[in-house]
Amino acid sequence: MFDEYVRHGWRLVPLTRGDKLTGQRGWNEEALTLDTPDDVEGVRQAGLAHSYSGTCAIDIDDIKESIKYLRDFDIDLKAIYQAPEAVRLLSGRKNRAKLIFALPEPMASVKISIKVDGKSKNIIDFRCATKGGKTVQDALPPSVHPGTGKPYYWEYGDDMVGHWSSLPDLPPELLAFWQENQTPDTPEKADIDELWSAEDLQPYLDNLDPDVDYNDWLSVGMAIHHGTGGSDEGLDLWDQWSSNGTKYKGKKDLMPHWRSFRGSGITVEYLLMQQVADPEVFEEVEADVVAKVKESVKFEPVHVAEWISRPPPKWLVRDVLPEGDLAMMFGASGSGKTFMAMDMAMAIASGYDWRDHPTEKGPVFWIAAEGAGSVRNRALAYAKYNQIELEDSDLWIVGDTPSLSDVAHVRTLGEHAHRLKPRLVVIDTLAAASGGANENSGEDMSVVMAACRALHKISGGLVLLIHHSGKDRDKGSRGWSGIKAAMDTEIEVALEKTGERVAVITKQRDGEADIQYPFRLVPVNLDPFDEVPQTSCAIELMEAVQVAAPELDAAWLSLVMGVLASCKSLTVKRSTYLNKARDAAITAGADEDLVNEYLEEALLLLAANNRVVLSNNEITVLVRDA
Predict the structure, then answer these.
(1) Which residue of 59, 123, 205, 490 could cross-link 507, Cys pair, CB 3.0 to 4.6 Å?
(2) Residues 6 or more apart from 72 whose CB is under 8 A from it?
(3) CATH 3.40.50.300 domain span(s) along the chain
């Protein structure tokens, strides 16, 4: 049914959390709404973007109280509700409804609350837009309401007169009341696109323990304050949640904090980030699958004969970079990883083969979060070395440092990505763009990975992360193991002890891994800038070659075995060996810059001759004679 809505001219918002909320505050930009049948294909939950569709909603949380309240303003809500042309959006909950009207000029939403038993109670909302003109949304049929577990549905005052495709205009008396209740921006509301009701925030508090530590308790209060604009309703919600804890001292304990929260820096996003999946959600999914089997075309088994007739995976750089979701290029500082990424990115942006690998030409969106100034010279060096004109390439560069942990930053990047439709998005580097997130924390980095996936979904392009390797090269890239698991492709760029540089495909979900591309960095002299000489490097790939290990004479082997023989135990830590052997070698006149390399090579040679056994970080001596 969603395709009928967009054909009618409405713009929709996907409800990605599987309920009536979007789950992410970047949803209400017009460029990110759905407005074609292709956009809504496969969408299961969606809301009506009012301000971009010429519509509004009168959201009645308490029909009886609202009728009574508006009667004092000479508004007969009951008559409006029962009018033949009335279009009602219902969820099945008693004493609640939404009236949908046409409203050509967007208006900022207004909430109407009354005092009940000394507490603020929201009874009716006038919903269309934020203070800044961005949309608010209301879930449309056949979306499922999270509380009832049943789909929303339309109801009309008279089925022969009313229909969602021919909305009545907002009655003049409601329009006048709405306009009279418009309020100027206040500091606590200036930085939030749409205020949240207590009802919308309640599910995010249900899974939080009110006996958290003091700082976390304050953060929850700050988040509620931000989300509700510092309203009395928000204070009541914080008080109600806090009262369930053993540390609760009464509402008077909350009041001084609540008044001080303005501009605290903690936003409503804090509550969203505390959520984990409820096991009951999976039970609902199971029940939904049973109910939807006949109408769903997803997860349908396909016979192998048909399956093999499908086209193979597509590539941005054939056999190297796929047209996938996420990829990573990592390596130690100075390995040349950013030069390698620039080399591939420019090939895609310019439509040239990457070292005999065909590419799919398209825009490249380069987010230079680290070392933005060096991107200039690297792009110039690539162009000069490869004899191309940068004006003919489709490379776009952001020279700022965004935070992928900040929803507002991701939203802005998403807007640009939606406009550019890049084939490749490069984040240089992951660490610099993570906004201080702990790389070893699954909780922190799962947020960053979600942001990267969002950029992929918005743009349709592969997101390539440039990242650092860990202290132990054998363990791959730095940080949380889930980062590698999320990648379709992983490429390690390394500077070997021999001085050779190599790019190795260490993971390829839909292709062959362990392919090596030896290369060297070629210095390129550029035109001076303000009379200051400029230089950079370009990539030159080489044929794979076997590099000979350094030759070790008897003196080196004798020195190493002498050091090992001097140890009290047959098994010694490698670090102990290196420290003692290094001192002995330097005393004997060895070159300090090469000594570590030669000592390691000596160990490998001794192991090959069965004189020592190397395991983990230890050395076991089999033959002690020097």
Answers:
(1) 490
(2) none
(3) 315-541
Residue 27: per-residue pLDDT:
66
Q: Which of 511, 539, 519 is nearest to 327 (CA)?
A: 511
Q: Cα separation of 484 and 481, whole Å?
A: 6
Which strand (E) or helix (H) includes residue 586? helix 574-587
Q: Residue 534: what pLDDT?
A: 83
Query: C-alpha angle 444/450/454, rounded to 5°?
Result: 150
Which pLDDT tens digit goes with each residue over 277-306?
A: 333 332 333 344 334 434 444 557 888 888
Distance CA 12, CA 1 (A): 12
Residue 230 three-state SS: coil
Q: Where are the domain boundaries for CATH 1.10.10 in the chain?
A: 554-621
| Contact residues for 432 (Cβ-Cβ < 8 A; gap 6+) | 369, 370, 401
Cα–Cα distance for residue pair 336/233, rounded to 1 Å: 56
- Count of beta carbons in the 10 Å neighbourhood of residue 351: 15
Q: How many helices (H) and strands (E) does the chain have?
A: 21, 23
Element holding 456 (H helix, E strand):
helix 442-459
Angle between helices 442-459 and 407-420 (to 10 degrees): 20
Q: Where are the alpha helices (DSSP H) in 229-308?
A: 232-242, 251-260, 269-273, 279-292, 304-307
CB of 414 closer than 8 Å to CB of 26: yes
Quick: pLDDT tens for 4-54: 999 999 998 887 544 444 444 456 778 778 888 888 887 788 889 999 999
- Classify domain 554-621 by CATH architecture: Orthogonal Bundle (1.10)
SS3 272: helix
For residue 129, give the DSSP letter.
B
DSSP state of 311: P
Cβ pair 437, 447 in contact under 8 A: yes
| pLDDT for the residue 253 | 87
Q: Beta strand pairing status for 364-368 and 424-428?
A: parallel
Write the secondary structure of 10-73 as one string of H (helix), E (strand) and C (coil): CCEEECCCCCCCCCCCCCCCHHHCECCHHHHCCCCCEEEEHHHHCEEEEEECCHHHHHHHHHCC
- Quote the crossing angle between the two packed helices 574-587 and 595-608, to the nearest 10°: 120
Measure the CA–CA gap between 416 and 452, rounded to whole angstroms. Answer: 14
Lateral strand order in the sheet of 571-573:
571-573, 618-621, 612-615
Residues ≥6 apart with Cβ < 8 Å to 453: 325, 326, 463
- CA-based nearest residue to 426, from 470, 506, 371, 508: 371
**Cβ-based neighbours of 457, under 8 Å, separated by 6 or more:** none
Are 393 and 378 in contact by the 8 Å Cβ rule? The answer is no
pLDDT value of residue 430: 93
**Sign of torsion, CA 604 608 614 615?**
positive
The CATH number given to 315-541 is 3.40.50.300
Backbone angles phi, psi at 220, to 5 degrees: -60, -45
DSSP H or E run through 493 = strand 489-495
Instruction: Find the helix or strand (DSSP H, E) in which 582 lies.
Output: helix 574-587
Alpha-carbon span 221 to 158, nearest angstrom? 46
d(CA 415, CA 411): 6
